[in-house]
Each structure stands twice: as structure tokens, then as C-alpha cells.
């Protein structure tokens, strides 16, 4: 069976902080061999870059998350631009960026300004983006259409409609499949992931957030990407081997990841 890549794990947060080797060992035992760690604010850039430099399975993404819009400063964009200029092969994306219209006081004009600036940095440095989107799929798609990024990216943790997912795919974006599909009540999302072309899907956990069914109340973990995969196999017509191989190819292609020996 091809190995798994968790394309979205906040490995710089507890419970992984201080237990990196044990956490990576647990992930590897579940055949999760590579993990992309997206930032949420400039405060975490250095730590994420250090993690990627020191642990071969880890890769960095740097960006300013819309949920922290009240925290971000103008200087943070300059910090991001500087980090991207100095990027190594372990820095594989700009993220986590995007739009969030679910939170209190979303400050949409400021979110849009920040998002557009980061999309331009991604274009300048030829990097894909990792996108957060809550109740914002349609306006986000409109922004992405105008930005016309050559490397596109992934809309992570997708829980929108089939039509919205197809709109992102037409723009060249992948759709992140996470723990939501492990809940039988999530019929809309399960149907979307069963229907979309396999060539458009990526595997993710969003650990330590978004716990899977059966693990409520516990921090999510990268090894549970294997559980998400198992449920995806139940929903789709392809064989597990075909699904695993295509998910791996999708992840390697988008993020230019090296193969694991």
C-alpha cells in the first residue's frame, strides 16, 4: 500500500510539542510518512521552519490565518515575504490563509486585503496555497479566480456543497478530505467526497483539531489520516490501492514533495 501524507497538521501545537519523535513514530506506524505543518501567525514561523529543518517527515507552510485577523500586524506580511525569499526545499506552501465569515467580527475588508497580499506572495515565489474557508466558499472562489495562481493549492477541511467544490476544482484547486467524513451524520460532505474526481482530493487531519468519530474529546493526531483514508475507501468505488496511490500522487504533485524511500 502506498504511504499517506497528512497535508494539514498543526504539529507545532500541543500535544506534539516536546513529543515530536514519539508523535512521528506513531504516525509512521500508521503509514503516515510525511506531514505538512501550516502556520497560523508570524509568531510560529521560526518554530515551524525549525521543525521542518530538524525532522525529515515534516514540511513547512507559512501564512497568516484569517481567524487571527485581530492579531496580525502590517509587519507580519514583511516577515512572511522575508521568510519566502529565504525558503528552502522544506518550505512547500503559503498557508494557512483564506477567509472566515463564521467568526464574530470577521473584518472582511481586512481579511480580503491580507488574503490578496499573501496570494501575490505565493505567485511571486511559485508556491501553492493552503486555504481556510468557513461560510466563504463563493467569495473565496471569486478572489482565487482573479488571483490566477499558477500553482493553485488546496481548500482544506472542505465541508461545502458539490457545486462549490467543483468550482474550486475548475480553478485548479484540490479539496482536502478530513475527519468530517468519519461522521455518518455528515451526509453532504460524505457525498461530495464520494463524487468528486479522485484526482482532486488530498488527505488531511487538521490535528490537533477536528477529532474523528470515536475520538471526540481527544486531540486529533496525524496517524488518524489512516482512519480518514479507511472511511474514504468505504465511500468510493475505486480499490484502496488505487485511492492511496492517487492521493499520494496528488500530494506530491501539488507540494513538490520528495518520495520516501
UniProtKB/TrEMBL annotation:
CDD domains on file: TatD_DNAse
Pfam families cross-referenced by the UniProt entry: TatD_DNase
Gene3D superfamilies named among the record's database cross-references: Metal-dependent hydrolases (3.20.20.140)
Alphabetically ordered keywords of this record: Hydrolase, Metal-binding
SUPFAM superfamilies for the chain: Metallo-dependent hydrolases (SSF51556)
Any GO MF annotation of the entry: metal ion binding
Family statement drawn from the similarity comment of this UniProt entry: Belongs to the metallo-dependent hydrolases superfamily. TatD-type hydrolase family.
Listed PANTHER family: D-AMINOACYL-TRNA DEACYLASE (PTHR46124), HYDROLASE (PTHR46124:SF3)
The name this protein goes by in its record: Metal-dependent hydrolase
Organism: Yersinia enterocolitica LC20
Upper lineage: Bacteria, Pseudomonadati, Pseudomonadota, Gammaproteobacteria, Enterobacterales
Amino acid at each position: 500500500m502506498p504511504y499517506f501524507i497528512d497535508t494539514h497538521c498543526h504539529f507545532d501545537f500541543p500535544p506534539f510539542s516536546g513529543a515530536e519523535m514519539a508523535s512521528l513514530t506513531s504516525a509512521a506506524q500508521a503509514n503516515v510518512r510525511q506531514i505538512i505543518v501550516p502556520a497560523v501567525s508570524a509568531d510560529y514561523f521560526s518554530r515551524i521552519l525549525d521543525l521542518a529543518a530538524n525532522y525529515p517527515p515534516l514540511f513547512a507552510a507559512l501564512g497568516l490565518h484569517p481567524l487571527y485577523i485581530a492579531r496580525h500586524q502590517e509587519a507580519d506580511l514583511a516577515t512572511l515575504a522575508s521568510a519566502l525569499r529565504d525558503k528552502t526545499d522544506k518550505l512547500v506552501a503559503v498557508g494557512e490563509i483564506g477567509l472566515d465569515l463564521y467568526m464574530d467580527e470577521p473584518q472582511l475588508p481586512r481579511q480580503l486585503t491580507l488574503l490578496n497580499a499573501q496570494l501575490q506572495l505565493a505567485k511571486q515565489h511559485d508556491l501553492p496555497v493552503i486555504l481556510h474557508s468557513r461560510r466563504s466558499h463563493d467569495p473565496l472562489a471569486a478572489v482565487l479566480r482573479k488571483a490566477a495562481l499558477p500553482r493553485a493549492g488546496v481548500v482544506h477541511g472542505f465541508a461545502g456543497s458539490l457545486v462549490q467544490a467543483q468550482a474550486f476544482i475548475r480553478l485548479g484547486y484540490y479539496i482536502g478530505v478530513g475527519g468530517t467524513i468519519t461522521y455518518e451524520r455528515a451526509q453532504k460532505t460524505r457525498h461530495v467526497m464520494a463524487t468528486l474526481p479522485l484526482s482532486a482530493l488530498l488527505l488531511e487531519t487538521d490535528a490537533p483539531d477536528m477529532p474523528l468519530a470515536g475520538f471526540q474529546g481527544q486531540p486529533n493526531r496525524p496517524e488518524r489520516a489512516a482512519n480518514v483514508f479507511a472511511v474514504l475507501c468505504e465511500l468510493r468505488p475505486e480499490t484502496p490501492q488505487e485511492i492511496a496511490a492517487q492521493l499520494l500522487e496528488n500530494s506530491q504533485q501539488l507540494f513538490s514533495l520528495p518520495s520516501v524511500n
